[in-house]
Specification:
Keywords: Coiled coil. The protein has about 450 residues and is mostly helical. Among the domains are: about 50 residues; about 240 residues, no CATH class. The protein is built from 11 helices and 6 strands. Strands 1-4-5 form a 3-stranded antiparallel sheet. The termini are far apart. About 25% of the residues are buried.
């Protein structure tokens, strides 16, 4: 075992060695620093000398300078290229941003339009829903009324309360109606000596008269049609044309539509004529025979047969009142039309003229309602091109102004000028059969061109 002195000696040797090493390092550092300072001083001196030589630039040896210059030029080219690319990208970015702004504005505009249109559609939808609701309520009410009418019809069938009118009776009623129309026209028409005495009428007024005879008169203007008449016929033009205009309104408007006289003005609890007519024609497409039976039976109950309930009587009175109201309205409409140019209203008794006319319409409405209770189909033929008269033809007879006897054939083959009153044809019978056959309930009354 070593003694303490030896140990202390070892430590002392080690410490001395360490101190020497540290001193050597310090000397090396000091020497390096001194060398750097010397280099810096030399560089500073060289720089000062360069400045003194006129500020000449410090240049590196040739190869190094060329390499650095090439690298700088390369970097400048890259920088310029990147600058160009940056400018292009910046331009594209600005264009894209501008396009985005335009698209956003257009989108906002379309969005507003769509929102506005959507609001309109929603409002329209709400209106349509409300109308649909009202129509459903109205349809329910109409269906209830229709059911009541059908119930009365079936009750009437069970009671045997309907008798089919004979054809002779129907023909008599049409003769009565024709007589009423003729009397009214003759009593109220202007009295003139010849067609020229109507020269106080303007061309437009005369044309209105001709147009009001559409479908009942030969094509042409006023003068052309008057020239087709003999003087004795021409002086009766106001009466003849007034008769024809009234006939056209009654037969063309009331007898060709089975439900025309059922129009209830101002009331909503009864089906409108147009609704019943549309239903009737729809049923004809499915089963014509059953449709005609249904139509006839519907109208029969409205005629108030002999055995009816109290409600049926009230319904009949209500229908009668509406027919009278219809007559008054139709007469007022007619007298405000072209027929007024043909009438003599100087007597001042316009109320009696209108009342007489309203009575004719009411009678015609009752007759129309009555004949449509038949299962036959009614037609009132209109004027046909090149139609010619032949005495004895079951469809027509000459107006009394021509003074023809039953066997007089002097006007046979002559052209017809005007239908003064149309024929009434009934197709089929009350057994809902033979709709290809017809019978004549009223023959047409025609005005004939007597010129040879």
């Amino acid at each position: 075992m070593d003694s303490p002195n030896k140990t202390r000696g070892a430590f002392s040797t080690t410490a001395t060695s360490t101190t020497t090493s540290q001193a050597s390092d310090e000397i090396s550092k000091h020497t390096a620093i001194q060398n750097r300072e010397d280099v810096q001083q030399k560089i500073s001196v060289e720089i000062s000398k360069d400045k003194q030589r006129g500020g000449e630039e410090l240049r590196l040896p040739g190869p190094i300078e060329n390499k650095q210059k090439a690298e700088v030029e390369h970097l400048q080219a890259v920088l310029e290229r990147m600058s160009v690319e940056h400018s292009a990208l910046q331009s594209r970015l600005e264009q894209a941003q501008k396009k985005e702004q335009n698209m956003r504005r257009e989108f906002d505009k379309q969005l507003k339009n769509y929102q506005s249109e959507n609001q309109k559609l929603l409002r329209h939808l709400n209106v349509m829903r409300e109308e649909s609701k009202q129509l459903r309520m109205s349809n329910t009410s109409l269906q209830e009324t229709l059911d009541q009418i059908q119930e009365r019809a079936f009750r009437s069938m069970d009671k045997g309360g309907w008798t089919v009118p004979e054809d002779g009776k129907i023909r008599d009623n049409f003769r009565i109606l024709g007589g009423k129309i003729k009397k009214w026209a003759k009593s109220n028409a202007l009295q003139i000596a010849g067609g020229k005495d109507l020269d106080h009428l303007t061309v437009d007024q005369k044309q209105e008269i001709i147009e009001s005879l559409s479908g009942y008169c030969v094509p042409g203007n006023w003068d052309q049609i008057i020239q087709m008449m003999t003087p004795s016929v021409a002086k009766k033009v106001p009466y003849l044309f007034a008769h024809a205009i009234l006939s056209r309104d009654i037969f063309g408007g009331m007898f060709e539509n089975p439900f025309f006289t059922l129009e209830v003005f101002g009331e909503v609890d009864f089906p409108a004529a147009s609704q019943l007519t549309n239903l009737y024609w729809a049923m004809i497409e499915i089963d014509a025979t059953e449709a005609h039976i249904w139509r006839a039976q519907m109208l029969r109950i409205l005629q108030t047969p002999s055995k009816v309930s109290k409600s049926d009587i009230n319904f009949g009175r209500r229908l009668e009142a509406n027919l009278s109201r219809m007559g008054a309205q139709r007469s007022e409409q007619l007298l405000s039309g072209p027929v007024r140019y043909l009438l003599d209203m100087t007597s001042g008794d316009e109320q009696s003229v209108m009342k007489a006319l309203a009575d004719i319409y009411t009678f015609a409405g009752q007759l129309s309602l009555s004949v449509w209770t038949q299962r036959s189909i009614l037609q009132c033929p209109k004027f046909q091109p090149n139609i010619r008269f032949f005495n004895g033809n079951e469809l027509m007879s000459a107006h009394a102004i021509h003074l023809l006897d039953e066997e007089d054939t002097q006007l046979d083959g002559q052209p017809v000028i005007t239908i003064i009153q149309p024929a009434v044809l009934a197709f089929g019978n009350d057994n809902a059969e033979h709709y290809e056959q017809h019978k004549v309930w009223a023959e047409a009354i025609v005005l004939i061109d007597e010129r040879k």
